[in-house]
Amino acid sequence: MDTARALEHVNATIGLIDAWRATAAKFDDFPYGDETKARKLREKLAKQTDEVQQELVVSRAIASGVGREPLRRNLRSLDQPFADRWHAARECLVELQGSLAKAEEIASIVGPAGPRLAASELHPVIWDAVRNLWDQGEHGPALHVASVALEAHLQGTLDKRDVSGSDLAIAFALEAPSEKWPRLRIRELIEGSETYESAHRGAGHLVRGAFGYVRNLASHPGGFDDMAEAEALEQLAVLSTVARIVDRSDVVTAADDQVAAAEGSDG
Fold first, then answer.
1. Among 20, 127, 177, 181, which has the minimal tally of Cβ within 10 Å of its Cβ?
2. Is the separation of the CB atoms in 253 and 164 below 8 Å?
3. What rounded mean pLDDT belongs to the chain?
4. Are 237 and 147 within 8 A, CB to CB?
5. In this model, does residue 96 exceed pLDDT 80?
């Protein structure tokens, strides 16, 4: 991340909010009945509102980039009295400002933070399904919804709506596809090699884990009730990993296998 540019943006966004607040305060300063002045003031405030909302999109991305997910969720207009509309967002921006401005000092005190995983960078099938729940802090329900989205992704890829959950792991089985079951074959692996066989067995285990562990616990009371956000994100990443493996795989049907066998015999 370009910390200097990020800090420059956050400073500018704080300035936009302060300008909005100055404009909003003027509504108390002119005599009632001056509709022309009131209209111009409303137009100016509407323009400033749009500017703040647009810049907060960037601020949320910056907060996510530095691992400040709680800040990211509050960088928006909240349901508050008119004059306090951006109060919470401004407080979060000031905190984000401090994180950026004192990044080197913080690193020298606490040591390197290491790589960070941003929820918004997970597989779109997973993240798009849960972004609203995640922003509201509903991590357990989000994990359940994400697992349902993963199940639909697998079913759609295989064209197998009659099979669900852990049973979908058979798609990575090393046996040849049958009339009932197509297979998923991970691209760029040499068929028959130890790596090929291990990767497909591992993919099947991941599918079972995604549904047997993540979805199972997220779907039942007491499963993930007290889970911290970081741990919930790790579980979400498991689902995302499976979705990416599916995308890295080709669907092979029994008919495809027969064609390949015929071509091999012709050769």
1. 181
2. no
3. 84
4. no
5. yes
